[in-house]
């Protein structure tokens, strides 16, 4: 699958590690449900630490993507949910460390709460 960055100066530039939009050349589209920082073996949050939860949520997402036959490079759209939007920069840094370029399109939403008291959730759309 080839991903092509869609970028225009007629819209604001990305303020973090993401693309304005991503176009693809065909393939199978897979819509992933949100993942929080649960330890797969226990079903409990990996820690109370925000960064630990973010890394675990991305690891969980990666496992689902690989089960679908894709890789992190297959991601065309991410949605991040944070219970504390002031931790936006921290989530950006972790995402930039994990997700390969070109970065997918992305939305980030501040929410009041998440399941199991999680501080972070990520969902994705991939094309394989």
TrEMBL record:
<dbReference type="InterPro" id="IPR006056">
    <property type="entry name" value="RidA"/>
</dbReference>
<dbReference type="GO" id="GO:0005829">
    <property type="term" value="C:cytosol"/>
</dbReference>
<dbReference type="GO" id="GO:0019239">
    <property type="term" value="F:deaminase activity"/>
</dbReference>
<comment type="similarity">
    <text>Belongs to the RutC family.</text>
</comment>
<dbReference type="InterPro" id="IPR006175">
    <property type="entry name" value="YjgF/YER057c/UK114"/>
</dbReference>
<dbReference type="InterPro" id="IPR035959">
    <property type="entry name" value="RutC-like_sf"/>
</dbReference>
<protein>
    <submittedName>
        <fullName>RidA family protein</fullName>
    </submittedName>
</protein>
<dbReference type="Pfam" id="PF01042">
    <property type="entry name" value="Ribonuc_L-PSP"/>
</dbReference>
């Amino acid at each position: 699958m080839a991903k092509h960055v869609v970028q225009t100066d007629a819209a604001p530039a990305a303020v973090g590690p993401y693309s304005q939009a991503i176009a693809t050349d065909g393939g199978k589209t897979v819509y992933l449900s949100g993942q929080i920082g649960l330890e797969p073996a226990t079903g409990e949050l990996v820690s109370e630490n925000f960064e630990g939860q973010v890394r675990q949520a991305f690891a969980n997402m990666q496992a689902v993507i690989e089960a679908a036959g894709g890789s992190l490079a297959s991601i065309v759209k991410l949605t991040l949910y944070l219970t504390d939007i002031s931790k936006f920069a921290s989530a950006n840094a972790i995402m930039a460390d994990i997700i390969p370029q070109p970065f997918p399109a992305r939305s980030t939403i501040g929410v009041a709460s998440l399941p199991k008291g999680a501080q972070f959730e990520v969902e994705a759309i991939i094309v394989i």
